[in-house]
Write a structure and sequence with these properties.
Structural class: alpha+beta
Radius of gyration: 20 Å
Helix content: 25-40%
Number of helices: 10
CATH architecture of the largest domain: 2-Layer Sandwich
Strand content: 15-25%
Shape: globular
């Protein structure tokens, strides 16, 4: 796996090539494609992939977007930035030169090494580390903060949540659920991992007693509630309170659960 610092290096090389400074927000992603010298097209391709990179001929490339996956303009921007990653990371472009075509799954959905690397490229391109870190400073991990970051950088709330988790100095966790009541993914901040030991919740059912359980099952329509962290992580030694926020992604039937434990004076009890 390519390290983050190197991916950021490739991001900055693209920014240099299209005359953007390293921390500048990108308002027009199509203009970046044009300045980079790539072609762009959209079409209906069904449901198997969101975007594609294509080698037309030696040194000439195109980026395509699947109109059947136009769930939002923010999602389209991320998909294009992801494909720019495939064309900007040398290892990816070398592979594309050999195969001529690469199709990409929706944001953060693939476990394939090059897809993960292109996802990282996309988020660092659209929401540069320094700018994003400055924007999240002194802000809690809740729906208000995430919506603000999503709107400012024009990225999906999902991408904003994952970037927040990776860059924050707070203890927090993100749980991605489907409408059938199953947990399909979980991401924790470094501080959460260090302070709250518990096995990951992958593919488990949403626990009863959580606010998300009530929301998904139509028991409550509220999207924020004070909870006991133990409802999600029953193996914790002591009872810990937390704030649980809910965001509906708007596509793929995803419900995002944002959890931030309340600070305790007795850290050993975590």
């Amino acid at each position: 796996m390519i390290e983050d610092w190197k991916i950021i290096l490739y991001v900055n090389q693209l920014r240099d090539a299209v005359s953007l400074n390293y921390n500048e927000r990108i308002d027009d992603i199509n203009l970046v494609i044009k300045k980079a010298g790539y072609q762009y097209f959209e079409d209906h391709f069904g449901n198997d992939f969101s975007g594609l990179s294509k080698c037309i001929s030696a040194g000439h490339y195109a980026i395509g977007f699947n109109k059947d996956h136009f769930w939002s303009e923010k999602f389209r921007r991320f998909t294009i930035a992801h494909e720019l990653g495939h064309l900007s990371i040398p290892e990816h472009r070398n592979k594309l030169d050999q195969t001529s075509l690469h199709r990409s799954k929706p944001e953060f959905r693939s476990k394939d090494k090059i897809e993960i690397e292109a996802d990282k490229f996309a988020i660092y391109l659209l929401a540069p580390k320094k700018s994003f870190t400055e924007k999240l400073k002194n802000k809690n991990f809740n729906s208000e903060t995430i919506n603000e970051l999503s709107d400012y950088f024009q990225i999906s709330t999902y991408a904003a949540c994952l970037h927040y988790i990776d860059l924050t100095d707070l203890a927090c966790s993100l749980i991605i659920n489907n409408r059938n009541g199953t947990i399909i993914y979980e991401r924790r901040s470094k501080q959460f991992i260090n302070g709250f030991y518990h096995q990951f919740l992958y593919k488990q059912k949403i626990p009863s007693g959580t606010h998300t359980y009530d929301f998904v099952n139509g028991i409550s329509s509220d999207k924020s509630e004070e909870i006991e962290l133990n409802s999600w992580y029953p193996d914790l030694k002591n009872k810990i309170t937390a704030t649980e926020n809910i965001l509906e992604l708007g596509y793929n039937n995803f419900v995002l659960t944002l959890i931030e434990p309340h600070k305790s004076s007795d850290e050993e009890n975590y």
